[in-house]
Every structure is written in C-alpha cells, then in structure tokens.
Amino acid sequence: MQNLETKNNLQDGLQLPLMEEFYTIQGEGNYTGTAAYFIRLGGCDVGCHWCDVKESWDEKLHPLTSVETIVSNAKQNGNLAVITGGEPLMWNLDKLTSALKSEGIQTNMETSGAYELSGIWDWICLSPKKTKLPTQSVYDAAHELKVVIYNHNDFKFAEEQAANVNDKAVLFLQPEWSKSEEMLPFIIEYVKNNPKWRISLQTHKFLNIP
C-alpha cells in the first residue's frame, strides 16, 4: 500500500510508474525512421481490445521511478524522447518534460488524449479511441492525429476525429497490425480519394525491432 509521501510524489509527477524504457527507431507516424528513446509508463483504463501492450494497463505492476532516474537514462540515448504507455496523461508530466527539455531533449508523446493535457511538448501524437474520447485540451494541442483502422466503421470515426482536432494537425490512418493485410487496400483507396490523410504503418514490426 502506498504511503502518503509516495502518493504525493505520484500526484506531483516526481515519480512515475515506469514499465520500460529503450532506445530504438520510431516506427509510426510523422517521426517514422527517427532514432528515439521510448519511455513507456504504466497505467491505462481506455481498454482497447487490440492493444499490444496490455501488460501496461495495471500501473501497480510497474515500479515507481523518479524523474531524475528517467531523465538520466534518457540523456545517454540520443536527443529525442517519446513518452508513451499505457496512457501517459493519466499522470502529471510537467516535471518529466521540464527536466527532459532542460537537458536539450525533444519531448514527443503518444496518447489517446483521454485525460487533460500536462507537460511541455514538441510533438503530440493523438491516437483517439472510441471507448474514451479525447479531451478538448488534447484536440487543441495535437500535432498529429493517428487513427487506427480495425474495420470499415473506423473510417467514419477517423473523419469525426479529424473534425475535432485543430486544423494544423497532420492526419494519419494506420491499419491495426492483425488487420493490415485485410484493411490496407481499403486504406490506400481511401487516402487516394481523401488526400488530406496520409498512411502510417508499424514499420518497426516489419523491421523486427521494439
């Protein structure tokens, strides 16, 4: 059971439930092909049935780790950090992002947008989910909208989300990995007919890297 100090540190963002951290190549979206240090935080209640990191959902399974330790590790691995999850906005990210930026590290985030925005961001990739829609603060701040296409109904959802996001956001459609072979031909045709969209692929899976 967490003591009061631990709860306060978590609430203030001085410690965060860290599932894993690793240096790799960004495989999706606008920064595809870019070297990046991934910081994956535990905790998510959005509940996507096709989530490929369901082990991240229960934050209690992942050790509370100080911002100082996370930033120290990030400093040794390039100059771009991607904060992901889980759902990272479950936590106060002000301290983490301020500390990363003070070390000259670019701060990118991948989020469903289900919680209010915290942190200082160079790039926000919003990947909204039907089960828990984004907050207005994330719609307004997103640099990139990435909608996962699992079935044909998701094209309508994608357009609904594009109407909500700010008009500067880059728009991506990405096939859910297990449905790539089935849905990619439809995505290609959709983008040809609606060129405001771009295609994102999980290239890291093709490359067999994390």
Which keywords apply here?
210 residues; alpha/beta; TIM Barrel; nine-stranded mixed beta sheet; iron; 7-carboxy-7-deazaguanine synthase; carbon-nitrogen lyase activity
Walk me through what this model shows.
The chain is an alpha/beta fold. 30% of the residues lie in helices and 24% in strands. The protein has seven helices and nine strands; from the N terminus they run H-E-E-E-H-E-H-E-E-H-E-H-E-H-E-H. Strands 3-1-2-4-5-6-7-8-9 form a nine-stranded mixed β-sheet. The two termini are 32 Å apart.
CATH architecture heading: Alpha-Beta Barrel
Instruction: List the total number of helices.
Output: 7
Average of pLDDT: 95
Distance between the termini: 32 Å
Q: What composes the largest sheet?
A: 9 strands, mixed
Give me the CATH superfamily: Aldolase class I
Low-confidence stretches: none
Shape: globular
Domain unit count: 1
* Gyration radius, in Å: 17 Å
Instruction: Note the run of SSEs as H and E.
Output: HEEEHEHEEHEHEHEH
Q: What percent of residues are in strands?
A: 15-25%
Number of strands: 9
CATH topology: TIM Barrel
Give the spatial strand order of the biggest sheet. 3-1-2-4-5-6-7-8-9
CATH class: Alpha Beta
Q: Which class do the helix and strand fractions yield?
A: alpha/beta
Q: What is the helix content?
A: 25-40%
Function: Catalyzes the complex heterocyclic radical-mediated conversion of 6-carboxy-5,6,7,8-tetrahydropterin (CPH4) to 7-carboxy-7-deazaguanine (CDG), a step common to the biosynthetic pathways of all 7-deazapurine-containing compounds.
Subunit structure: Homodimer.
Pfam families: Radical_SAM (PF04055)
Protein name: 7-carboxy-7-deazaguanine synthase
